[in-house]
Design brief:
It is built from 4 helices and 4 strands. The protein is of the alpha+beta class. The protein has a single domain, classed as Nuclear Transport Factor 2, Chain: A (Roll), CATH 3.10.450.50. It has a 4-stranded antiparallel β-sheet with strand order 1-2-3-4.
Length: 117
């Protein structure tokens, strides 16, 4: 699968994962679409993230963009791209999968899946 590391949507996906790992949940929340932000608060993001990595014994040490797509069956008109970002530590490997859309002239996350498939 291709990885478009320089696409604006991919950069936001990695920044989102990095914000999670760094504990900057308000920053992660600000990267969501307006509708998604209204439905999810930073504490819920923190709780989902903590649940995803709770089985790991140490902190995450790696954030890596693993794959991207710009065409997929459920793509909506304002979607820019799909990205799968790995979050791993010494004894665990998880990920976030995000779909980013254009909103107010910038890429924002409209859909998020926690954990590896």
């Amino acid at each position: 699968m291709e990885v478009n590391r320089s696409a604006p949507y991919a950069l936001v996906a990695v920044a989102f994962a990095r914000a999670l790992v760094d504990g900057r949940f308000s920053d992660a929340h600000s990267m969501l679409s307006s509708g998604f932000r209204a439905a999810v608060d930073p504490d819920r993001i923190r709780n989902n993230y903590d649940e995803m990595i709770e089985y790991g014994e140490g902190p995450p040490t790696v954030v890596e963009l693993m794959s991207t797509m710009e065409q997929w069956p459920d793509k909506q008109p304002h979607d820019l791209g799909w990205a799968y970002v790995s979050i791993s530590g010494d004894d665990f490997s998880e990920a976030v999968t995000v779909v980013l859309q254009q909103e107010a002239g910038k890429p924002v996350i409209r859909h998020l899946e926690w954990g590896r498939p």
